[in-house]
From TrEMBL, chains A, B:
It holds the Pfam family GerE. Residues 5-121 form the Response regulatory domain. Gene3D superfamilies: 3.40.50.2300. It comes from Fulvivirga marina. This is Response regulator transcription factor. Keywords: DNA-binding, Phosphoprotein. InterPro entries: CheY-like_superfamily, NreC/VraR/RcsB-like_REC, Sig_transdc_resp-reg_C-effctor, Sig_transdc_resp-reg_receiver, Tscrpt_reg_LuxR_C, WalR-like. Residues 145-210 form the HTH luxR-type domain. The modification 4-aspartylphosphate is found at D56. PANTHER family: TWO-COMPONENT RESPONSE REGULATOR. The keyword DNA-binding applies. One of its GO terms (biological process) is phosphorelay signal transduction system. It comes from the Bacteria. GO terms for molecular function: DNA binding.
Length: 212, 212
DNA sequence: CTATAATTCACTACATTTAGTGATTATGAT
DNA sequence: ATCATAATCACTAAATGTAGTGAATTATAG
């Protein structure tokens, strides 16, 4: 059996080295490279044979979501696995849409890591139990509760950001050169679209969605 | 020279194993244990000789801050080092007040990790450059800008959480069986303590500080 | 035990947000 | 070109939040 060529991408150097040490003594695994950002990874892939890319989600410059997409665009045969400390349904969603092959939490142990790597090498996807659970839960919630996944307009997002920045309706109106009434309308629309109750909800939503 | 007895505490199993692998082949280092939460660590310390404890900041149950404090209370001779992905001035502050001996970012490399470990073993503290910078920056900002470093009371935090959860003043009063006036006072105190303007600011603060 | 801080309550006044209803004018996509 | 959506504006009324001032009671730590 051929060795599995693995590339690890993570800006946390210590984690990188740790993971490398973890994979160093495995028979069927060949650690092709350990890189610390997405840009390096893409350059590396141009001239190296890689079967599986293991990457962190949160990286400066280019995050794991973007890197995964770019890899899949250019090298659809390469299997990608994301490592993260959290399991956020939205993130998982995006990644799955971009054909990610695995999602593992960083509290996974060595055996799970290896199981995941072998699965990917065999052409199977691997998602940790916790991730699968979160994912199905969120799917479930989406069906039962609110079917209207509300796409916010540019203006609404703009206003939402200003709300998060502690601006009052009046201040927002001044900054955007529009009437307070208009800002008010957007505010109301935001609340009703998102099914929220008040400003606190708006701010919470914005921060959790990474809008502000 | 005696070997340095090291205990690692981190709930991220993969990181734990990786770090263990990293320290496994070092001459002067003896990895005494790898545990995954603070409770286990405290039990372990009762019956084992440990020179240096390396711990994660964010752990379920008992976080690194609390664990560090408890260790220092009971075993002041043990050197403690915190590992974290971020360098938050507030956190660093608390830790330093509790006599932490080191603070390393998780993107540190193997050589820096070893340097830190050796420093601690020699009785010197070790803080990574980035951490030192953030810390002095925050000291600087504190002098120039706002002198009030605000420790929120338990009640204030409780109320802040309820605000984040979209409760109105009246609803909070009902849930806590107190007068609306009281809730109002807490609200005002929160705003002035934190130098914020309105509910949006409170929610933003709470989420960014991980309070809610 | 005794300062200090936390928690509680009260009253007033004003600012801001929320809710309801309705309507006109861009803008973009088919 | 037209249909849908986005963006704009208007008015009213009620609810909620913000600000100022003051004070009593209860914990907490030194």
């Amino acid at each position: 059996m051929e060795k599995i060529n693995i590339l690890i991408v993570d800006d946390h150097h210590m984690f990188l080295e740790g993971l490398a040490a973890l994979l160093a003594n495995i028979q069927d695994v060949h650690l092709t490279g350990t890189l610390k950002n997405g840009k390096e990874a893409l350059e590396f892939l141009e001239s190296n044979t890689v079967d599986v890319v293991i990457m962190d989600i949160s990286m400066p410059g280019m995050d794991g979501i973007e890197l995964n997409k770019l890899i899949k665009d250019s090298y659809p045969h390469i299997k990608t696995m994301v490592l993260s400390t959290h399991s956020d349904p939205k993130t998982i969603n995006k990644l799955i849409q971009d054909d990610v092959n695995g999602y593992l939490l960083k509290n996974a142990d060595k055996s799970e890591l290896l199981e995941a790597v072998y699965s990917l090498a065999k052409g199977q996807n691997y998602f940790s139990e916790e991730v699968k659970e979160k994912y199905t839960n969120s799917m479930f919630a989406r069906q039962s509760k609110s079917n209207e996944e509300p796409p916010l307009s540019r203006r609404e997002i703009e206003i939402l950001k200003l709300i998060v920045a502690q601006n009052t309706t009046q201040e927002i109106a001044e900054k955007l050169f529009i009437s307070q009434h208009t800002v008010n309308s957007h505010r109301k629309n935001l609340l009703s679209k998102l099914g929220l109750k008040n400003t606190a909800g708006l701010v919470k939503y914005a921060l959790e969605e990474g809008i502000a």
